[in-house]
Amino acid sequence: MLKFDNNANYFHLTDDPDSELIKAIEFANQVVWLFFFAGFVAFSFLLIWFLSRRLRVLEKTANEFASGNLEARASEGQWVRLGKLNKSFNHMATKIANLMVSNKALTNAVAHELRTPIFRIQWQSEVLMEQLSDPEAKQLASIIEDTEEMEHLVDELLYYARVERPDAAIELEEIDIAAWLKEHHVKWQTHIGHTFDLQVAPESVNVNMDRFLLCRALVNLISNAKRYTEQRIVVKLVEDSDHIAIEVHDDGIGVDPEHWDRLFDPFYRVDKSRDRASGGYGLGLAIVKHIMLRHGGKVDVSHSEVGGACFTLVLPHYSKS
Fold it and tell me: pLDDT tens digit string along 84-114?
């Protein structure tokens, strides 16, 4: 509202909505806000992508460490680290690795030290047996049997300690695994004391393997199947585009899926039907797991097509690189 002196007229000024200048100013304001919003969205997207990329790198390292590689550490480079989280993770990993190494060293040392007193007990008991009457000799024979069981457990502990070490020696060679299975079929049946069906789908397939370690893993699985089978054990060699697998099936009671994740942990027992009374110590499957890790493979458990459990040794295809 405007009024000039000595003039009775009033002048009223308002914006003209049809003015080109007003429209240009409003359009410019809208464009500015649009660019501001788009910039905010783009910045937020880039920030989230940047952080998620670093988190994925840290997650990969954490998974590698959890898989048994105690040497895995997160990079602390400027373009990879996520604040102090990488450094904290590495500190935690070092502490855990030191504890694991100390625990393994202690177990290994104890197992070694036990062998001497066990041998002495066995030797002295056998000497005494020759001097005792039948009733007393039977009691002493029971003691000797217990010491032999302890000796077997100590041997299993020492073997587990060897294969668990990431720097343990492994002699990889190119082997036709189909021919290898057929060659050892009869010998394994005699060693285990139970017949099993061998089904080899590919006639010839090469893998990189340590024949002694893989033999131990397979014999452990077949022996395990023997303990829980009703009648039938089937060993199958199958191949796909990515892997070569040796499946060991039995028609026993099987294993509930709730136990699958921990079944390969040392000394883990599912229930009373799978305890040491059946001949196991809880180390056989743990040994198999580490043998397969040494081969760059894995071992899985699932339901068997013949009714019980199916344990599968998964190996990568042979590569000359």
Answer: 888 888 899 888 888 877 777 777 777 777 7
Contacts (Cβ under 8 Å, ≥6 apart) of 293:
67, 68
61 is written with which tokens?
């390292």
Residues in contact with 201: Cβ distance below 8 Å, sequence separation at least 6, in sequence order:
236, 237, 238, 239
* Percent of the chain clearing pLDDT 90 (strictly above): 19
The span from the CA of 15 to the CA of 13, in Å, is 7
State the pTM of this model.
Answer: 0.65
Burial pattern 47-81, b for ≥16 Cβ within 10 A else e, equals eeeeeeebeebbeebeeebeeeebebbbeeeeeeb
Residue from 32, 14, 35 nearest 24 by CA:
32
The answer to whether the beta carbons of residues 295 and 210 sit under 8 Å apart is: yes
CB 211 within 8 A of CB 175: yes
Q: What is the pLDDT of residues 168-212, one digit of tens each?
A: 778 889 999 999 999 999 999 998 888 999 999 878 888 889 999
Q: Contact 85/57 with Cβ under 8 angstroms? A: no
Q: What angle do CA 193, 195, 198 make, to 5 degrees?
A: 135
Alpha helices in 165-241 (DSSP H): 177-192, 211-228
Contact 82, 58 (CB under 8 A): yes
State whether the Cα torsion 261-270-108-219 is positive or negative. negative
CA 231, CA 234: separation in Å to the nearest integer? Answer: 10
pLDDT tens-digit map of 277-321: 455 667 889 899 989 988 888 999 999 988 899 999 999 876 654
Q: Within 10 A of 238 (CB to CB), how many other CB atoms are there? A: 15
| Alpha-carbon span 41 to 36, nearest angstrom | 9
Give the separation between CA 130 and CA 162, rounded to whole angstroms: 38
Q: For residue range 142-174, what is the model confidence (pLDDT) as tens digits?
A: 788 888 888 878 888 888 877 877 667 788 899
